[in-house]
Write a structure and sequence with these properties.
Radius of gyration: 20 Å
Largest sheet: none
């Protein structure tokens, strides 16, 4: 995708207010995050808000490192891995990236499409399979344009739609939520089951493919290199902060409705339907619209991130109009649509994706930490002591997440 340059004009304020951080935020606020935050609020009220606060700051820390890597070196994370390793180590690392990001995102794409379709079904009715096709077509058309500028603007708009829908619904139920501040600032686990839920909240926010996406996207957005670092940091703090706020709003909505009633849900779609008798049709419709936006954003970003990650790993140009990248993102989108329309859950592929991502997340986070401490690569832009402490904590948590995912896949958890 050729970089776009815009020195001014009527749309300059929009350009200054947007950036790849919004794509990252749009990517992690998917149906999985909506569902996990809903279940956390329904079961534990506001007591696990701290997990979302931690994961938001952890995401900011890792994404800042990825953005800095992209701007300083001009290389995406996949390309950095390819350059750093040699021989068998490079082969293993690249195979892991291609498998976890490429195949894994194909597996999760079905959930993204179905989540968005459930939102449309809840808001306006109609056939679920038809909505899967509609969302798939929208995602495909946007990716086919090959325009980073267009993708960025659509992501900003959809994140704002999600923010309005979820935050407005949370404000309505806020008086029913007990001690949200305590849940935010006092980490605790109400029972043994809360550990897995807290890990799930962190795992749906700190995701490996966003590191590949961000490192590649900053060079598209700020082709001037390190001069764009200040803008990139401001962009990611704002956008990821908004994303964290949206996730917290979803949790508080569930806490103030289903949690107060002692209810339980199995999905975010159940949440949208459950809101109607409690808060009225408006709140249920707003939540459904938010769920649609969450599904659509993830349905766009998952194929795009996979294409960029595979391109960097294999040495292809990071241009979404390149036929090889179109084959990657088109294949992922097609697989998701096929499973969604057929009504078949791609369980084996998702199990594989969980196992691969369980290995990839701590490995990628650790590799990123090593690279941004390398003066040969980063020069004066290496990590400082505070960034290393934060990065070390995040890598440790990532390792725990990876272990939990692997144990879950093996049936030991």
């Amino acid at each position: 995708m050729a970089p776009t340059h815009d020195a001014g004009g009527a749309d300059a304020p929009i350009r200054r207010a947007s950036g790849p951080g919004w794509i990252v935020a749009a990517a992690f606020i998917g149906p999985g995050t909506v569902t996990t935050a809903t279940l956390a609020g329904a079961r534990y009220g506001a007591e696990l808000l701290w997990a979302l606060l931690f994961s938001t700051f952890a995401t900011m820390a890792l994404q800042e490192m990825a953005a800095r890597l992209g701007l300083v070196t001009g290389a995406g994370l996949g390309e950095a891995i390819r350059r750093r390793f040699d021989g068998g180590g490079r082969t293993v690392a690249l195979l892991l990236v291609v498998a976890a990001i490429g195949v894994g995102n194909a597996a999760y794409q079905t959930g993204n499409l179905l989540g968005g379709a459930l939102g449309l079904e809840g808001a306006v009715g109609g056939d679920l399979r038809l909505w899967v096709l509609v969302i798939g077509a929208l995602a495909g058309a946007l990716l086919l344009s090959g325009s980073y500028r267009l993708v960025e603007r659509v992501m900003v708009g959809l994140v704002l739609v999600m923010s309005a829908a979820f935050v407005a619904t949370a404000v309505v139920v806020m008086p029913e939520v007990e001690s949200p501040l305590a849940g935010l600032l006092q980490p605790r686990l109400p029972d043994a089951g809360a550990l897995l839920v807290a890990v799930g909240l962190i795992g749906t926010t700190v995701v490996p493919y966003n590191l590949f996406l961000h490192a590649a996207a900053v060079s598209e957005r700020w082709p001037g290199g390190v001069s764009g670092l200040r803008h990139a940091r401001r962009d990611l703090v704002l956008s990821i902060g908004v994303g964290g706020l949206v996730s917290m709003a979803i949790l508080l909505t569930a806490a103030g409705t289903l949690g107060q009633a002692g209810g339980e849900v199995s999905s975010a779609a159940d949440m949208a339907r459950a809101l109607e008798p409690i808060l009225g049709a408006w709140a249920g419709a707003a939540f459904a619209v938010g769920l649609f936006a969450a599904g659509l954003t993830s349905a766009i970003t998952a194929p795009m991130a996979a294409a960029w990650a595979v391109a960097g790993a294999l040495g292809w140009p990071c241009d979404l109009r390149d036929r090889r990248l179109r084959a990657v993102w088109g294949g992922i989108l097609a697989i998701g649509i096929a499973f969604g329309v057929a009504g078949v859950s791609p369980v084996p592929a998702i199990v594989f994706a969980q196992a691969a991502n369980g290995i990839l997340l701590p490995a990628v986070a650790g590799f990123l930490l090593v690279v941004v401490n390398d003066r040969i690569w980063m020069g004066e832009r290496v990590n400082g002591p505070l960034a290393n402490v934060i990065g070390g904590v995040v890598v440790l948590v990532a390792a725990l997440l990876g272990g939990r995912a692997l144990l879950s896949v093996l049936g030991l958890l």
